[in-house]
UniProtKB/TrEMBL annotation:
Keywords: Membrane, Sugar transport, Symport, Transmembrane, Transmembrane helix, Transport. CDD domains: MFS_STP. NCBIfam families: SP (TIGR00879). This is Putative major facilitator, sugar transporter, major facilitator superfamily. Residues 25-478 form the Major facilitator superfamily (MFS) profile domain. It is a multi-pass membrane protein. The gene is 11437943. PANTHER family: MAJOR FACILITATOR SUPERFAMILY (MFS) PROFILE DOMAIN-CONTAINING PROTEIN, SOLUTE CARRIER FAMILY 2, FACILITATED GLUCOSE TRANSPORTER. Belongs to the major facilitator superfamily. Sugar transporter (TC 2.A.1.1) family. InterPro entries: MFS_dom, MFS_STP/MST-like_plant, MFS_sugar_transport-like, MFS_trans_sf, STP/PLT_plant, Sugar/inositol_transpt, Sugar_transporter_CS. One of its GO terms (molecular function) is monosaccharide transmembrane transporter activity.
């Protein structure tokens, strides 16, 4: 896979190879996604375990136990204290991501990853040994701090290390790790729920320490990215590392562009304020809108609450965990398709195809649930064909997300920003993601109770809106070097009026 590649609209060609070193580096860094994915997958399964509910949320357990067949099944898990267990983590991640911006910029990406792993490990230990509800919440907050640090630093690091021809595929290893974490969590929930002593939830929560240890060890041995080294004045070390990860000594053009970007970066003392200027309007819009829309696909509802959702629509406890495990497997497998196609077909194509697929599946699932439950939530006896239809519909929907909005929601914002505001901008991306992840997690059971099957129509509407947004406003970034990304905005019919033209030599001057 050696050889240069002319980026679309950039005119630049950097020599280099797809090296084993860069693959191992990106694969190791991607372990940061495991901690996020594991938590996404584990919380819904744990909140569907009866022993966990009996110990910490007895009112929810009693409500579920005493519900009559004629009662509204949509409302059986409607509890704000229970959803706060899931959603509190994302408020902590929001706070951590803002602080991690400064650490990432001054001390490098590795230290932020390492900090995330340590905090996540502490949270896993607190939750695994919890005896009181407050211990659960403290543990969730520590987990959130860890996720905020990892999600802020890992996508930036991978975009900076990867050769631009393969940046999409390599960066998507982060999303792949998230989906693997979700899938593993679903498997563990299924088996731990069968433990006779009723302590399976402890093992589910405590095993979060495993991916935490993986990212801690990985961060210790990872090299810093050349961009980060240059940003901290370590130019010689940066060039040596660039030669290693590109597999060639002919790196002068790329290295000089990185130096130019760094010089522009050092001239900006307050990246947060400059980020709000007109020049960065296109990128800031994408870093805000993409994670906002990503949460309104409804995917996190499936991820958080798949067992609860399946249990609500009539599946037994074990059947609901099994169904969640199946959807988690589809999520992981579909991400491989995204990795294989993102640098061939481009970001826009995957965004739009995934949006159409998700919309169709959400309408099918809404109709299936509406026809069986109506508005009173009384399904009677559920035939197997119905259960199979719902699971298949949700699986196809999950696959549509997994090769489009899932990985691209992290890839695109991490690759479009110039160096001088990259850390601050990624914090904006993570913060918006966490704000709406928290909001959706916190209100989902209430929305399900009051909107019923209309919840799926609600998300389907936003899928249409966000697909139109991508069609109109997102330029294609496939094959564009990260130091040359300004050209895609200058050539866009709408955004060109915001972005000042720059010469090729100083493409980093606000345009890295």
């Amino acid at each position: 896979m050696a050889g240069g590649y002319i980026a679309q609209g950039s005119g630049k060609e950097y020599p280099g190879k797809f090296t084993i070193r860069v693959f191992i580096i990106c694969m190791t860094a991607a372990c940061g996604g495991l901690i996020f994915g594991y938590d996404l997958g584990i919380s819904g399964g744990v909140t569907a375990m009866d022993p966990f509910l009996m110990k910490f949320f007895p009112d929810v357990y009693a409500k579920q136990l005493n519900i009559k067949p004629a009662d509204n099944q949509y409302c059986k898990f409607d509890s704000q204290t229970l959803t706060l267990f899931t959603s509190s983590l994302y408020l902590a991640a929001l706070v951590a991501s803002l602080g991690a911006s400064t650490v990432t910029r001054i001390f490098g990406r590795r230290l932020t990853m390492l900090s995330g792993g340590v905090l996540f490990l502490a949270g896993a230990a607190m939750n695994g040994f919890a005896e009181k509800v407050w211990m659960l919440y403290v543990g969730r907050m520590l987990l959130g701090f860890g996720i905020g640090c990892a999600n802020q630093s890992v996508p930036i690091y991978m975009s900076e290390v990867a050769p631009y021809k393969y940046r999409g595929a390599l960066n998507m290893m982060f999303q792949l790790a998230i989906t693997i974490g979700i899938f593993v969590a679903n498997i563990l929930n299924y088996f731990f729920a069968k433990m006779k002593n009723g302590e399976g939830w402890r093992y589910s929560l405590g095993c979060a320490g495993v991916p935490a240890i993986m990212i801690i060890i990985g961060a210790i041995f990872l090299p810093d990215s050349p961009s980060s080294l240059i940003e901290r004045g370590l130019d010689d070390k940066a060039k040596k590392e660039l030669i290693k990860i590109r597999g060639t000594s002919d790196v002068d053009d790329e290295f000089n562009d990185l130096l130019a970007a760094s010089q522009a970066s050092k001239a900006i003392k307050h990246p947060w304020s400059i980020l709000l200027t007109r020049q960065y309007r296109p990128q800031l819009t994408m870093a805000t809108a993409i994670p906002f829309f990503q949460q309104l696909t409804g995917m996190n509802v499936i991820t958080f609450y798949a067992p609860v959702l399946f249990k609500t629509i009539g599946f037994g406890a074990n059947a609901s965990l099994m169904s969640a495990m199946i959807t988690g497997g589809c999520n992981a497998l579909a991400t491989f398709a995204s990795i294989a196609t993102v640098d061939k077909f481009g970001r826009r194509t995957l965004f739009l195809e995934g949006g159409a697929q998700m919309f169709i599946c959400q309408i099918i699932v809404a109709v299936a649930i509406a026809s069986k439950f109506g508005v009173d939530g009384n399904p009677g006896e559920l035939p197997k064909w119905y259960a199979l239809l719902v699971v298949i519909g949700i699986c196809v929907y999950v696959m549509g997300f997994a090769w489009s909005w899932g990985p691209l929601g992290w890839l695109v914002p991490s690759e479009i920003f110039p160096l001088e505001v990259r850390s601050a901008a990624q914090s904006v991306n993570v913060s918006v993601n966490m704000i709406f992840t928290f909001a959706i997690a916190q209100v989902f059971t209430a929305m399900l109770c009051h909107m019923k099957f209309g919840l799926f129509i609600f998300f389907a509407f936003f899928v249409v809106v966000m697909s139109l947004f991508i069609y109109k406003f997102l330029p294609e970034t496939k094959g564009v070097p990260i130091e040359e990304m300004s050209k895609v905005w200058q050539n866009h019919s709408y955004w060109k009026k915001f972005v000042k033209p720059t010469d090729d030599h100083n493409s980093g001057g606000g345009q890295a």
